[in-house]
Amino acid sequence: MVTLDDLQVSSLGPCTVDSPLALYVGGRTTNEYYVGEHDRILYDDTLALIESRGVGLENLPTFESGGPRDKIFFDPATTKVGVVTCGGLCPGLNDVIRAIVLELHTHYGVRNVVGLQHGYAGFVPELGHDIVPLTPESVARINERGGTVLGTSRGAQDPAVIVHRLVEEGINVLMVIGGDGSMRGAHNIVVEIERRGLKIGVVGVPKTIDNDIPHIGQSFGFSTAFAKAAESIKAARVEVEAAVGGIGIVKVMGRHAGFIACYAALANHDADFVLIPEVDFSLDGDNGLLALLERRVAERGSAVIVLAEGAGQHLIPASDRMDPSGNTVLGDIARYLREQITKHFANADQPLTMRYFNPGYAIRSVPADASDSVYCARLAQTAVHAAMAGRTDLVVGRRRHRFVNVPIPFVTQGSHNVSPEGDLWLSVLESTAQPFSIA
Ligand SMILES: Nc1ncnc2c1ncn2[C@@H]1O[C@H](COP(=O)(O)OP(=O)(O)O)[C@@H](O)[C@H]1O
Ligand SMILES: O=P(O)(O)OC[C@H]1O[C@](O)(COP(=O)(O)O)[C@@H](O)[C@@H]1O
Ligand SMILES: [Mg+2]
């Protein structure tokens, strides 16, 4: 069970430098739209949850509020900040890079900001990636492009090598823009920094289209990605409606979390079945997927399945392959489903027109939409505030509209998934009218 201790953010030391941001918010206290720096944000948000803790107010689990402090730890004139993007692409990476640079430069007066290229590999001299200066001029308009101007990579690098490079380059703060794996890597860097008794801060910004990072509310880029995926669902619906016995399968990314599938399906309110890694399903039997599909096509003329790539892995041979970061390479559930559906409809002597859509990388290589761009900029600002205040080993997030600083070890001890008992999955069941259990 989460405790207040789990949510305490580490700090490099006392803040003694006047913050330039004090001009804007100095001494400001909490109001409906702002959380003062000495206030904390509740982990729980219902009476029943709070009551069930059985502890007094001061011991309730609470988050540190994100945002500027009156005093900061680092002297902007002598501070050097490094920025790195790691893991899979995600809409908004360039927005975050740009917003970090602008916030540091314009508001804190930090002139020395550099980018490491191609993820953690950028720290390894033998791999030959240059460290590049990041200035307001060099990041101008990068937010209009998808991808990351810094490049990215998967694959482990030695934290000792990374910290050696940080010291060699005189970097005081490392901003890690990445997902769950990157945050695990960031924590290892913190451990090495502490082992060496250094005062280098490490601050994360939560990136991933999968939205599988727990406790941070939502990762940036997720909303753009599912909106893009929703376009394929719309196209699938058009295709299958024009066909005889039309069945469309739209496979979307989402290794272990079905958020993209759920939200993209809800965005259309038009899918017949949503299959996600968190909810097992069967193909056979009267209430299995094949019989349900046959009935749905008979009733409606066509059907669209939104399939998360990690769904139904129990139906196909387990994969023992890993990507360079240690993520499991999944089996091809879409191909298996296509084969099984084709066989079933042939055996039942029913007409079938199969349409398969795989938007794949197209949903994560696009620029952020306006809403995600706003979110990216605000997360980046929050991350810079935390970094300048000497906070470390944390990732920023936005829970129930409040920006928070969340300890990385708290985030990496679990994962964020669609709960079969939650209201999101209930909405999906309501929208698709698929049965509670396909078995
Ligand atoms: N358990 C881990 N410990 C240390 N580093 C990790 C761990 N998992 C991933 N990383 C590193 O973090 C980087 C990004 O991880 P990856 O899983 O590819 O993407 P993401 O951060 O988006 O989940 C890679 O360089 C990877 O080696
Ligand atoms: O980029 P790769 O190595 O092809 O991996 C694809 C995977 O990356 C993801 O986009 C998630 O990546 P991250 O964990 O790096 O955010 C998954 O949705 C997808 O399964
Ligand atoms: Mg990941």
From TrEMBL:
Binding partners and assembly: Homodimer.
Binding site for Mg(2+): 180
Similarity remark: Belongs to the phosphofructokinase type A (PFKA) family. PPi-dependent PFK group II subfamily. Atypical ATP-dependent clade 'X' sub-subfamily.
Residue span, Phosphofructokinase domain: 80-386
Keyword ATP-binding belongs to the record: yes
Protein name per its UniProtKB record: ATP-dependent 6-phosphofructokinase
Cofactor or coenzyme needed: Mg(2+)
Catalytic residue positions: 210 (proton acceptor)
Amino acids binding substrate: 208-210, 253-255, 309, 361-364
Coiled-coil ranges from the UniProt annotation: none
GN (gene name): pfkA
Catalytic function, reaction form: beta-D-fructose 6-phosphate + ATP = beta-D-fructose 1,6-bisphosphate + ADP + H(+)
Matching HAMAP family: Phosphofructokinase_II_X
Recorded metabolic or biological pathway in which this protein acts: Carbohydrate degradation; glycolysis; D-glyceraldehyde 3-phosphate and glycerone phosphate from D-glucose: step 3/4
EC number, UniProt record: 2.7.1.11
GO MF annotation, one: 6-phosphofructokinase activity
